[in-house]
Structure to design on (468 residues):
């Protein structure tokens, strides 16, 4: 396909193992720079393997910048500070808490207005030429490598002029006064010799892992060969990047110009025929319910996919969401709740860890009129709207939209989800699904314990919706 000057290339990373391969490959082939920005970077198996790839890149002269939000970094200062001892690695922490030990938990409670505002962006940029952007953080659960929970998630691998915009967004955050170098933040004493110890530890773990069936399969996977040989079948299209400015987390700002919401809403406002929404955490509020109802009244088909109580990893959000289900269904808006047994994408390799196959939706995307596709980090909830910073890409592509619609339909199928409706006979909620190839109805939250239901009930009584 011939490409225009202002078009960028996009490749959908709907498979979790492909998502790991893409990040590892970009780190492996980078020759100049790696810019990494995440809300979560776990110190688990996949996190350590990517850390090894980043350290190896730095050893061969690549300038590595890592920007990570502080909320999940308890006890991690020393390992990050060790990495930053490398002459080619810089690490900054976004909106850091003052306390670097257990007392940070008290600080979160006593200073929630500031501590509750987080950088939720997810970006991985190589050489300013390729980037990955979407919903995944760095951690086993995002790459099919955990035995108790694996997320159904989504990223875009991108090339072309859009990468320049993504790099600018990274630099805006990197240069923000909210981003603090780990050296000036942490009082943990680290000497350069410890970097050698960390390198040896990561190398040993990598050498043990790379001979496993999982990594042998990754190494020989078709996608691995394509990305190394730069033979990815990109979809070329025009696109716009939208992101919150770092100043959004300042509690005294009311300037909506720094917010992503007003920037992307015109695309959703123009929806005429169909609007597909996938979001793991869905708390629309009265304003959101009314907006969706108006779109439906105007003739737009609205379909929403979110987590069931059995699948969600945050029951407090479910407590906020369930208040609006009846209103949405009464407006003829279609609701689908992902099942914990869902398999909307097929992993192309053996899992790193065999065990439980509990699934939870974590992908965040929207499709407007089979043409516009929005993929990013933002959920549809008050936290993404008001407290967290977010980022996303709006792509004008019928071809990409077709792929997204197919993914949505697989996820929302009766095999993978519960289709909610109101039982007109008894005026009660009905969760319709398919089990053993037969239609099955549930009239209470399906597949969950009484204790989990009780937790949602109690949380629903609390005035916490603005924090969800």
């Amino acid at each position: 396909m011939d490409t225009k000057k202002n078009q960028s290339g996009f490749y959908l990373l709907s498979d979790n193992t492909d998502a790991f391969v893409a990040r590892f490959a970009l780190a492996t082939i980078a020759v100049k720079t790696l810019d990494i920005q995440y809300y979560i970077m776990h110190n688990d198996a996949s996190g350590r393997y990517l850390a090894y790839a980043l350290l190896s890149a730095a050893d061969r002269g690549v300038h590595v910048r890592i920007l990570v939000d502080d909320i999940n970094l308890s006890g991690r200062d020393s390992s990050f500070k060790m990495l930053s001892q490398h002459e080619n690695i810089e690490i900054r922490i976004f909106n850091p808490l003052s306390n670097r030990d257990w007392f940070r938990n008290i600080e979160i409670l006593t200073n929630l207005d500031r501590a509750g505002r987080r950088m939720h962006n997810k970006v991985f940029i190589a050489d300013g030429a390729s980037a990955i952007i979407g919903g995944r953080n760095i951690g086993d659960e995002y790459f099919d490598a955990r035995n108790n929970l694996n997320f159904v998630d989504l990223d875009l691998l991108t090339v072309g002029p859009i990468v320049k915009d993504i790099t600018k967004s990274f630099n805006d955050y990197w240069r923000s006064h909210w981003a603090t170098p780990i050296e000036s933040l942490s009082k943990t004493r680290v000497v350069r010799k410890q970097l050698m110890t960390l390198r040896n530890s990561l190398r040993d773990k990598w050498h043990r892992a790379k001979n496993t069936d999982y990594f042998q399969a990754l190494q020989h996977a078709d996608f691995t060969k394509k990305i190394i040989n730069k033979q990815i079948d990109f979809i070329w299209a025009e696109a716009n990047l939208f992101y919150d400015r770092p100043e959004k987390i300042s509690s005294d700002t009311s300037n909506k110009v720094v917010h992503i919401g007003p920037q992307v809403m015109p695309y959703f406002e123009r929806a005429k025929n169909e609007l597909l929404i996938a979001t793991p955490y869905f708390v629309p509020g009265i304003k959101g319910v009314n907006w969706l109802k108006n779109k439906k009244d105007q003739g737009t088909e609205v379909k929403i996919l979110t987590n069931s109580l059995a699948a969600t990893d945050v029951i407090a959000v479910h407590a906020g969401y369930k208040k609006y289900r009846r209103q949405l269904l009464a407006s003829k808006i279609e609701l689908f709740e992902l099942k914990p047994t869902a398999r909307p994408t097929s992993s192309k390799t053996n899992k790193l860890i065999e065990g439980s196959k509990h699934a939870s939706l974590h992908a965040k995307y929207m499709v407007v009129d089979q043409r516009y596709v929005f993929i990013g980090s933002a959920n549809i909830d008050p936290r993404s709207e008001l407290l967290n910073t977010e980022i996303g890409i709006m792509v004008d592509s019928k071809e990409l939209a077709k792929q997204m619609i197919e993914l949505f339909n697989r996820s929302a199928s009766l095999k993978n989800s519960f289709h909610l409706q109101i039982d007109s006979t008894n005026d009660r909620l009905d969760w319709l699904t398919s089990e053993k190839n037969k239609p099955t109805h549930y009239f209470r939250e399906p597949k969950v314990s009484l204790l989990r239901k009780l937790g949602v009930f109690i949380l629903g009584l609390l005035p916490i919706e603005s924090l969800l």
Notes: Residues 279 and 364 are 5 Å apart (CA to CA).
